[in-house]
UniProtKB/TrEMBL annotation:
Keywords: Repeat. InterPro entries: NPHP3-like_N, P-loop_NTPase. SUPFAM superfamilies: P-loop containing nucleoside triphosphate hydrolases. The keyword Repeat applies. It holds the Pfam family NPHP3_N. This is Nephrocystin 3-like N-terminal domain-containing protein. Residues 89-246 form the Nephrocystin 3-like N-terminal domain. Coiled coil: none annotated. It comes from Candolleomyces eurysporus. The keyword Repeat applies.
């Protein structure tokens, strides 16, 4: 084969006196940013880059979007509110509903709609057990960076706040939101371009999805209180918040105010939407699945209209139930049953996700390592790829895949072994960790002990850059803390000195430069957490000297 000619590239041809300094290149909310004030802000603020509506939903769930032709009524209602004059409507709309009714899909649709209209300031999609996306720690800086990208006029005000107040990034959530989001937007909104946009087209919008997924409840309360206070004092600022969540006391008690418009998604659930979705899914399956193709050639249409109608009635208004139920019907299984065999069984399932979860999990229940794989998925503090799960459990990646391949109706399995495995919905984690719901599939809190034991095998290893090692360094102490919360009777079967030995080894190897350099994401907060756990578990009589040395090290 002949060699390809060398590639010729010209950069700035015929240019003179050109100087290129340090550059930062980012993509935020689909906007490419390079060597600008916004790029400098991103470098300073370090936002979460996979928290917005533009994230890769396959690797950063929730992976949900409205099926074409559905949810038109509720989307029209929300858009009309967002387009209305400030004097005629509230600054905040809260869309609430039960698990799986499609809140995240609607939030995505609204974010995309207002991005196309150039009126989206930013979006943040919370998701439990995903590190920073389940906390408020970087919420304000993430919104601030999105604000700077969407409205460049706000960038100088954000930069001024950061440079004039060096301690701002370590201050309270309320202070950060005021100085980095609300005040810069208010200042920028006075500019001619933004005034014209808001007067002619309507206010700007921030979309917050899954507020109930945030673990920092007090910060959630503070965010809501301060947001409403800001709008009370600034009733004409052209900004609105669209918030979605389940009904939880700490959210409901603060959002049920005259300043907030409430929308119950149950009132917008349409049987026609579910029927449209299921009909399209079955039509696509008939084109894709050779078994279904062969069946319909000899037996006519499938499913029969009466069976599909029964299925739609059985589903009710839950899109996640509809999606999971469809996957349960059509996904291949080890028992050699066909989609035609499985459809009648779904009609006998109790409406709701618990029965579906149990039925799906039973497909892999008897496989080796099933309990360990599912318990690990239920308790880990951030999603791990297949290779990371295998490393942590001391098994082969193919053994993890063998367990998960039958569970694709409820678990997202990525195309490669190095992308994170995620649950289709966080309600699966709730199911697995609630004994009266999951029964034989229950993951006991004491399993944290096993995860601590496994984490300890990676601390001080020769390969500090493996997924399991980095996970162990970041989260081992959290597993210890969770185990330590168990009643004394449940902890007696485990030996406390095992933890002291493990912590001593953990402390020793954290000193090693290759471990610390390999774990680039380890933070001072995690180091302090380790120190706290060390103090809790060390015996003051026998470990006094070691604890003294440990304290000096930190």
């Amino acid at each position: 084969m002949a060699e390809s000619p060398p590639i010729h590239v010209e950069i700035l041809p015929n240019a003179h006196n050109i100087q290129i300094g340090e550059q930062y290149n980012y993509i935020v909310n689909g906007n490419y940013i390079s060597s600008t004030e916004q790029a400098t802000l991103i470098h300073l603020l370090q936002p979460i880059l996979d928290a917005s509506h533009t994230r890769d939903r396959e690797t950063s769930p929730p992976n949900s979007a409205c099926f074409p032709g559905t949810r038109t009524d509720v989307i029209r209602t929300i858009a009309a509110w967002a387009d209305s004059m400030l004097l005629w409507n509230t600054h905040v709309l809260w869309l609430y509903g039960y698990v799986g009714c499609g809140k995240s899909a609607i939030a995505l649709a609204i974010a995309l709609k207002f991005e196309r209209r150039n009126r989206l300031v930013g979006s943040f999609f919370f998701f439990r057990n995903t590190g920073d996306r389940s906390r408020m720690t970087r919420f304000a800086v993430t919104l601030a960076c999105q604000l700077a990208a969407a409205i460049p006029e706000a960038a100088p005000f954000i930069k001024k706040a950061v440079t004039e107040e060096p301690g701002l990034l370590g201050s309270s959530l309320v202070a950060q939101l005021r100085r980095l989001v609300y005040e810069p937007f208010k200042a920028a909104a006075k500019r001619v371009r933004l005034l014209k946009t808001s007067l002619l087209n309507g206010p700007f919008l921030i979309v917050i999805d899954g507020l109930d997924e945030c673990e920092d409840r007090r910060d959630v309360e503070a965010f809501i209180d301060d947001m409403l206070d800001f709008f009370k004092k600034n009733p004409l600022v052209p900004l609105r918040f669209f918030i979605t969540s389940r009904v939880e006391q700490h959210i409901q008690g603060r959002l049920e105010k005259e300043q907030v418009r409430l929308e119950n998604l149950v009132n917008h659930c349409s049987r026609d939407d579910i029927d449209t979705f299921m009909s399209a899914c079955f039509e696509a399956e008939k084109q894709r699945n050779s078994i279904v193709k062969a069946y319909t050639r000899n037996n006519g249409d499938w499913p029969l209209k009466k069976d599909k109608d029964r299925l739609v009635d059985h589903i009710g208004g839950s899109f996640i139930f509809a999606s999971a139920l469809f996957k349960y019907i059509v996904d291949p299984t080890d028992d050699q049953s066909t989609p035609m065999d499985r459809l009648p069984h779904t009609l006998n399932m109790n409406p709701g996700l618990d029965t579906l979860y149990a039925k799906t999990l039973s497909r892999s229940q008897r496989l080796p390592h099933f309990s360990d794989v599912m318990s690990t998925l239920a308790l880990i503090f951030e999603p791990l790829p297949i290779t990371g799960i295998a490393q942590l459990l001391g098994i082969q990646p193919f053994e993890v895949v063998r367990v998960l391949v039958n569970l694709q109706a409820i678990i997202h399995i990525p195309g490669t072994d190095d992308l994170p495995v995620t649950m289709c919905h966080t309600s699966l984690r709730d199911f697995l960790t609630t004994e009266n719901r999951s029964g034989c599939f229950f993951t006991p809190p004491s399993y944290h002990h096993h995860l601590v034991s496994r984490c300890s095998t990676f601390v001080g290893g020769r390969r500090p850059d493996t997924t399991a090692t980095l996970y162990s360094i970041r989260h081992c102490t959290k597993h210890i803390q969770q185990f330590n919360r168990l009643p004394p009777a449940e902890k007696r079967q485990f030996r406390q000195f095992d933890y002291v030995d493990m912590l001593m080894k953990f402390r020793t190897h954290l000193r090693s430069s290759d471990i610390v350099l390999g774990a680039k994401s380890i933070t001072r907060k995690e180091m302090r957490s380790f120190k706290k756990v060390w103090a809790e578990f060390s015996n003051p009589k026998t470990e006094h000297l070691e604890r003294h040395r440990f304290t000096a090290f930190f």
